[in-house]
Design brief:
SDR_fam, alpha/beta, oxidoreductase activity, oxidoreductase, 10 helices, seven-stranded parallel beta sheet, Sc_DH/Rdtase_CS, Rossmann fold, 48% helix, NAD(P)-bd_dom_sf
């Protein structure tokens, strides 16, 4: 898409969640460069970023109207980046990590959108939600993240069904991008590095900006051509995805990718045991 299309963002009133993170800060900077009237929301307040814990409904109901007020009482675009990605074992009882992941990645976006919706509907605005290719490509130990992102996709689809006559809703699906969201899985010894094709941070930022700028936004869009192919493949051929993931994981475990990570011990044992019938 030409830069001229991105110029459509000039003068637009935009809120970005997760605005102190890698994607959010880059997007906020580009929005300002393009002449948008943009403000961020994040747990970590910064210049042009309001402090807000999106897991706290009362705080969201207070901060979102404040953000809209600072934008002059308008809201043309709401962009959701806020997310976390701890490593979890799905065989364990859902703990604080699982609850946090769902609370931030799914319910956080839901809370903020709900608070902004009256203004978005009035201004015929658009919501851009950032999901993940992992929503359709399950990887061990990323289960909480995968579940949250697939649920976020379902939320976007439901929002479109109920409010699509008044607002636009686009879901963006990045692949693996090396950002601090992966620090917790690395600390657990089960990093995703090398498990899925890598993309650049810029790919996601520019895809989100294009989704926000275009006059004819797509329903679902990946950040790269390879990602777009993967998105279609995972949706239409899930059984082949299961087979490919299983084969890939066997090779990865044999190569020692997960090392001696305690969280992966049971998984390594199950892979070496006889298959079920």
């Amino acid at each position: 898409m030409a830069l001229g299309t991105l110029d459509n963002l000039s003068g637009r009133a935009v809120i970005v969640t997760g605005a102190s993170g890698a994607f959010g800060s880059g997007t906020l900077a580009m929005l300002h460069h393009l002449g948008a009237n943009a403000i961020g929301i994040d747990r970590k307040p910064d210049d042009g970023v309001l402090g807000c814990d999106i897991t706290d409904s009362a705080e969201v109901r207070e901060v979102v109207p404040e953000a809209i007020d600072r934008l002059g009482g308008r809201l043309d675009r709401l962009i959701h980046f806020a997310g976390v990605g701890p490593a979890v074992d799905l065989g364990a009882n859902p703990d604080t990590d699982v609850r946090e992941t769902l609370d931030v990645n799914l319910l956080g976006a839901w809370r903020v959108t709900s608070a902004a919706l009256p203004t978005l509907v009035r201004d015929r605005g658009r919501v851009v939600l950032v999901s993940s290719l992992l929503a359709g490509l399950p990887i061990p130990f990323a289960g909480a993240y995968v579940v949250s992102k697939r649920a976020l996709t379902a939320y976007a689809d439901s929002l479109r069904a109920e409010y699509g006559m008044s607002i636009g809703v686009t879901t963006v699906y990045p692949g693996y991008v090396d950002t601090p969201i992966h620090d917790r899985s690395r600390a657990s010894g089960v990093a995703l590095d090398g498990l899925v094709p890598a993309e650049r941070e810029r790919d996601t930022v520019m895809t989100v900006l294009r989704a926000a700028a275009t006059n004819r936004p797509k329903r679902d869009v990946a950040s790269t051509r390879l990602g777009q192919g993967a998105l279609r493949f995972t949706r239409h051929f899930p059984w082949l995805v299961d087979s490919a993931v299983a084969t890939r994981l066997k090779g990865i475990v044999r190569s020692g990718h997960f090392g001696d990570a305690e969280i992966a011990r049971g998984f390594r044992e199950r892979l070496s045991a006889p298959r079920h019938h």
